[in-house]
Amino acid sequence: MKITLITVGKIKENFYRDAIAEYSKRLSRYCKLNIVEVADEKTIENSSDTEINLIKEKEAERILKHVPDNAYVITLEILGKQLDSVELSKKINSLGITGESHIIFIIGGSLGLHESVSKRSDFKLSFSKMTFPHQLMRVILLEQIYRSYRIINNEPYHK
């Protein structure tokens, strides 16, 4: 299985980079992982709705360039479906069983995803109604993907 994370913006803090590197290494036993960072747009405080939409549209163009037609796309969205770890593992496993060979997870920028990205999504996933820093969300997502593979392979994991 090939897993791709497409994320907006760069990781700035070393502790996030270290955690991402650790989970990437752990995941290498289970899947081929690729992380694609696309540039984020500068957000001006008190931007109008039109300016916000334009920013999200530019980020969406960068994201969608990396999404092949045959990939299964999971977007992270506040209004998406919330799954527990076992349910996420079943989702990933069932995609593999049904012949999906490439899953793409997309984490948008600070303003969220443009509707064009959301429309391309095959599954909208929410980790919480709370808002998390985008850099931390990458770590959380990688940890949950790793946990999913541990569950799929009947290996111990913390409940």
Automatic annotation (TrEMBL):
InterPro entries: Alpha/beta_knot_MTases, RlmH-like, tRNA_m1G_MTases_N. One of its GO terms (biological process) is methylation. It catalyses: pseudouridine(1915) in 23S rRNA + S-adenosyl-L-methionine = N(3)-methylpseudouridine(1915) in 23S rRNA + S-adenosyl-L-homocysteine + H(+). Gene3D superfamilies: 3.40.1280.10. CDD domains: RlmH-like. It comes from the Bacteria. Keywords: Cytoplasm, Methyltransferase, rRNA processing, S-adenosyl-L-methionine, Transferase. Belongs to the RNA methyltransferase RlmH family. Homodimer. PANTHER family: METHYLTRANSFERASE, RIBOSOMAL RNA LARGE SUBUNIT METHYLTRANSFERASE H. This is Ribosomal RNA large subunit methyltransferase H. It comes from Eubacterium album. The gene is rlmH.
